[in-house]
Amino acid sequence: MKTGEIAMAKLTEEEKARRALNRRRKAALEAEEDAIRWEEKQREWDANGTRLTWAELVARVPCRGCGLPVIDGRGGWPALLAMDDEQRAEYEAADADFKERHADCRSHRWSMEGSATAHCGFCCPPPPLSEDQLAAVASVLTRVRPKDPAELDTWQLTLTCDHVIRKTQHHSHTYWSASVATCPDCQRIRGIVTTERLPPSVVRRDAEQHRLADDLAKARLEHERVQKRADSVRTRINELESQLADLDKPR
Q1: Within its chain, how far is the Cα of 123 from the centroid?
Q2: pLDDT digits (tens, 9 = 90+) for 103-115
Q3: What pLDDT, on a 0 to 100 scale, did the predictor assign at position 151?
C-alpha cells in the first residue's frame, strides 16, 4: 500500500467530511471571485461606453474592448481537418496570438458568423442584438407565465460568508444549479458552499398529490384500453383455433 493510501485509510469519517467541506468552500470562493470579476467588468463596459450599438456593428466599428474588427469580411474558419497548410498556419498563428493576449482572462472566445477574428468573452462585450432579435426576445418574455409555487422546491444555501439563505427552483431539478448567489445581509455576490433541498411545502405536497392522482387515473384508463384490446385479440385467437380444429376433424 502506498504512503498516500495509508494516510487516507487513517482518516476518520469526520476528517473526510471536513476535507470535503474545505474543497467545496475553496470552489465556492473561486466561483465568487469570478462572478464579482465579471460583474465589475460589466459595470466598466457600461461606464466607459465599451459596448457597440447595432448601427455601429453594421458600420463595422472595431471592438472597443480589443480594437480588432468584429465583422472582418474574411469568412469563418473551415473545420480543422478541411484546412490546407496555409490556412492551418494562419489559424495557429491567430490562435497563439489570442492566447498570449488573453492568457489571464479565464473566459470563452466568440466571433461573428462569416468572420475569422476571435474576441475574448471577458475583454470584449458581446455583439448587440438587431431590432428583429430584440423583438423576438421580447415576444418570448411576454409569454413566460409566472412561477407556480406548487411547482417549486425550496433550497437552503450556505454561502462563503456563512450566512444561510433560501431560494426556490423548479422541482424537476435534482441539484441547485447556480454556483453563486447574492447575500441579502452582505449585499454582495457570494459563492455557494453547501445546498440542501428542504421538505416540500404544503402547497408543493398538495400539487404533487394531485399530479400523482392524475397520472394514476391516466394509467388506469390506459390499462383498461390495453386490456380491452388484449381481450379482443384473445377472442379472435379462440375463434381461429376453433375454426382450425373444425377443419382437422375427420369428414
Answers
A1: 23
A2: 999 999 999 999 9
A3: 85
Distance (Å, whole) CA 80 – CA 82:
5
Summarize pLDDT for 26-72 with one digit per residue, the tens: 999 999 999 999 999 999 999 999 999 999 999 999 999 999 999 99
d(CA 77, CA 95): 12
Q: Return the SS3 of 183.
A: strand
Could you tell me which residues come within 8 angstroms of residue 185 by beta carbon, excluding any fewer than 6 positions away? 161, 163
* Nine-digit cell string for 121: 468573452
| Nearest-angstrom CA–CA distance, 239 and 99 | 78
**Cell numbers representing residue 241 in the block:** 383455433
Q: Give residue for cell 376453433.
A: 242
Bridge partner list, 170: 152
Helices (H), 49-148: 54-58, 85-101, 131-142
Which stretches does DSSP call E strand in 59-179? 109-110, 119-120, 152-159, 164-170
Name residues of the chain where pLDDT drops below 70. 1-9, 202-203, 251
